[in-house]
Every structure is written in C-alpha cells, then in structure tokens.
C-alpha cells in the first residue's frame, strides 16, 4: 500500500514539474521584460524639461542638483540613453520609483535622451 502512495506522489510531482516547464517564462522572455526597449524618437528638449519639472524635481532638484535623489547634471557621462530609459521606466532600488505606468513610453525616452546629453 505504501508503494502505491509513493508512486502516486511521484507521478503528481512529475506532472506538476512538466506543467511548470511549459508555463513559466523562458530566460529570453524574462530578460526582455527586465530590460525595456527604448523607442526611437526625436529629442524634444523643451518637452523633456517640462516633463522633468512636473515629475522629477521633488527628488532631483530644480537644477537636477540632487536632493532625495542623486545629482543628474552630468548623468550623461555615466549612463547611456538606453540605460536611463530602463531606470526611469522600471525604477531602481527602493528610492527611484518606476514611471512606466505614469508616463508614456515616448515621454520616458525623451527624458532619457535629454538626460544622456548632460555631460
């Protein structure tokens, strides 16, 4: 009787493992979700400044000098537009919130390109 119970548990465990193998996202899919793709847009500096003033100055300061968040005045010499896009979209750590649900993808890309020029 005990062999039947153990066999049943083994069959259920194997079936569960097979279901997980086919339903969990693959490594490529997870990597794609972790690194958002920046859309190709033309930089509009005036619009980027307006969006930054409306969303970023409370942490990064009115001159991007820093405060609760880091200084962004020369962030372009450290990070590319694509890296900045990922950070703005997804957030970083507990301090930088994600803006992917608050701003449009084009707005985030515009800010990232504008910040990338700050060197």
Automatic annotation (TrEMBL):
One of its GO terms (molecular function) is iron ion binding. Residues 43-119 form the Cytochrome c domain. The keyword Electron transport applies. Keywords: Electron transport, Heme, Iron, Metal-binding, Transport. Heme c binds at residues 56, 59-60, 96. Binds 1 heme c group covalently per subunit. InterPro entries: Cyt_c-like_dom (IPR009056), Cyt_c-like_dom_sf (IPR036909), Cyt_c_BACSU-c550-type (IPR012218), Cyt_C_IC (IPR008168), Cytochrome_c550/c551-like (IPR051811). It comes from the Bacteria. GO terms for cellular component: membrane. This is Cytochrome c550. It comes from Fontibacillus phaseoli.
């Amino acid at each position: 009787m005990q062999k039947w119970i153990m066999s049943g548990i083994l069959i259920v465990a194997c079936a569960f493992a097979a279901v997980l193998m086919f339903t969990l996202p693959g490594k490529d899919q997870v990597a794609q979700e972790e690194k958002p793709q920046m859309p190709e847009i033309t930089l509009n500096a005036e619009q980027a400044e307006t969006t930054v003033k409306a969303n970023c100055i409370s942490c990064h300061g009115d001159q991007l000098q820093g405060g609760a968040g880091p200084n962004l005045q020369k962030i372009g010499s450290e990070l590319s537009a694509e890296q900045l896009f990922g950070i703005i979209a997804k957030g970083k750590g507990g301090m930088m919130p994600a803006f992917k649900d608050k701003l449009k993808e084009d707005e985030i890309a515009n800010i990232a390109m504008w910040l990338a020029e700050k060197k």
